Amino acid sequence: xxxxxxxxxxxxxxxxxxxxxxxxxxxxxxxxxxxxxxxxxxxxxxxxxxxxxxxxxxxxxxxxxxxxxxxxxxxxxxxxxxxxxxxxxxxxxxxxxxxxxxxxxxxxxxxxxxxxxxxxxxxxxxxxxxxxxxxxxxxxxxxxxxxxxxxxxxxxxxxxxxxxxxxxxxxxxxxxxxxxxxxxxxxxxxxxxxxxxxxxxxxxxxxxxxxxxxxxxxxxxxxxxxxxxxxxxxxxxxxxxxxxxxxxxxxxxxxxxxxxxxxxxxxxxxxxxxxxxxxxx
Length: 281
Fold this sequence. Notes:
By secondary structure, the chain is of the alpha/beta class. It folds into two domains: 6-220, P-loop containing nucleotide triphosphate hydrolases (Rossmann fold, 3-Layer(aba) Sandwich); 225-280, no CATH class. The protein contains nine helices and nine strands. It has helices at 6-12, 17-25, 36-46, 61-74, 100-119, 124-130, 162-169, 196-203, 223-246, and strands at 50-55, 80-85, 134-138, 150-154, 177-182, 209-214, 251-255, 268-271, 276-280. The strands form two sheets. Strands 3-2-4-5-1-6 form a six-stranded parallel beta sheet, with helices on both faces. Strands 7-9-8 form a three-stranded antiparallel beta sheet, with no helix packed on it. Strand 8 (268-271) and strand 9 form a beta hairpin. The longest helix is centred in the last third of the chain and has 24 residues, at 223-246.
């Protein structure tokens, strides 16, 4: 079965009472892209492309993905939204209370918050979840399933191994759309473990996939977050520049009074705030 166009899906579900009742019971707020790259993502989505949205935190990658996905489910173009997120790299599940299903709920909260905001009601996520319009899953539960007629959002994919990402992507069935969201700067895995770059290198060779890299100018979460990330990047570049100019081989950051003494032989102190400093050699 080939992938249906938006028009074909709409025609197929035009007289389906189940979708009409969904639209009447919930009213999704209309949102518009706020930045050039957000607009690019919206356009690619409308053009029926699979998406890879990656870049800085606070740029609305998960927000606009969930908005577009829910919008199309309400419109009858897809059956449901499937959200996947890895909970393994955090290494914290064993310490959380409850059974495995209850532990996973912790990682579901961001999508619950986004959904409730999109509908402007505190119970919206639970309503559409009970209607089987949205499903949140861990990467631990994907073997043997096929995801047909769905929008699959793989979020925080920088925290997934190549094996996890391969297992997820190969679950995609007929008439489904894939959206990957992530930021390599926020990875809980090291470069050898994460499948982020390898997956991007594969998907960029596919004509059905479009990439959007979000920059600092795309940050919309808050002015504070934008200022913080700009300052963080500036500091990182400053340290790298100092390291290159001085022939520094290693850099470590410490809080005042903690960590290695800066009086160690061969180490130089670089102050970065009133109570934090970098030691380098």
